[in-house]
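Appendix B, record 7
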Amino acid sequence: MAQAASDPTAEAEARRVMERYFNYGDKASGGPGDNATGAWLENELVEAGYACRRQPFDAPGYEGDAATLVAGAARAAVIPQAIVTSTGPGGVTAPLAIGPRAGAISIVVLPHARWSAVVGEVERRIRTALTAGAKGVVVVTTGPTGEALALNAPLDKPLFDRPVAVIGPRDAAPFLKAAEAGETATLTIPGRAIRRPAYNLPARLNRGAARNLVLSTPRSGWFTCAGDRGPGLAVWLALAKWAARTPLPVNVALVCTSGHEYDNGGGEHFIHEIAPKPADTALWVHLGANVAARDWHERGAMLSPLPSADPQRFLLASTPLVDRARTAFAGLQGLEAVYTADPALAAGELGVILKAGYAPAIGIFGGHRFHHAPNDDLRCVVPALIPPVTEAFKAVIQQAVA
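Structure tokens (predicted):
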């Protein structure tokens, strides 16, 4: 299926949704931006004919001043690793070391990747340093923009009993030099970990049908999430409004989740408490990270924006949907390679959905170049990239629920 001709109305709507989402600011679970986004979307869905409710749960957060790393004249902001272990206002002062060393603030330099979660390889490296006796750890998230990348974490409790923070490779150089010289540094994470109320936004359109179409997307995340969450939210809202006005032979169940950055906590709550059962679900469509973020030319430290989509987005579909999806998504960078849905291959909420036994299911996940970076802003989105993805999903949905 070739990409559809430009649709000015659909592009304008995508622009409206992504700009409004971005303008709510930081999207940390249960924070002002996340809550305001949920309230706005609630109004949008009610106007489209859905019955909405809020599903509350509590999420971790951080309260207090910004975290810093200081060594001599070098000073940089760092990202406290959630769930945060505070240093208190006085910080932790110790010699800097590259790698594990007892009594030191250990710098752990990760290999180049689009890092997104602490569990797994990053956790292993941090634990190696802490087991060696480090007083704290600073992780260098070596990635495609030079920025510090926030790392998703478990929902329930801190992974580490000593302070851990993240710094970008762009800011790390003077501290690596200081470590080589055996200099002392101070890591300060002055605030504290908190728990605060958050909520999922489920909605429903009941047509008296035997089965349901489920459409899901997260809205929370690190920082403003323009390219991370914005395109998925725009496609999700367009599909929700289309499903409301289209005589599909199914009920429509929606959810926009919070708690994403804490091991998909909101998605877990929805599946276990509210979602239609797998036997009652005709199709589950999930719009995860990097549904349609911008790609960039990279030459050294210089990044130049492109009008095309970042191809590091993955489309998974249950076996009966694969051929139709390949036709519908043909020509869309990254999405034209359709992978058979497998929980072991999926990431984010899509993995949770598949593990819970939902099939058929189809969804996107990925990580664009500014994934989890503080400057994931409106430069990272292109409204024209949204309608082709929306239309491709419509084609798959219509066949799957017929």
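Remarks on this record: The longest strand covers residues 192-205. The mean pLDDT is 96.
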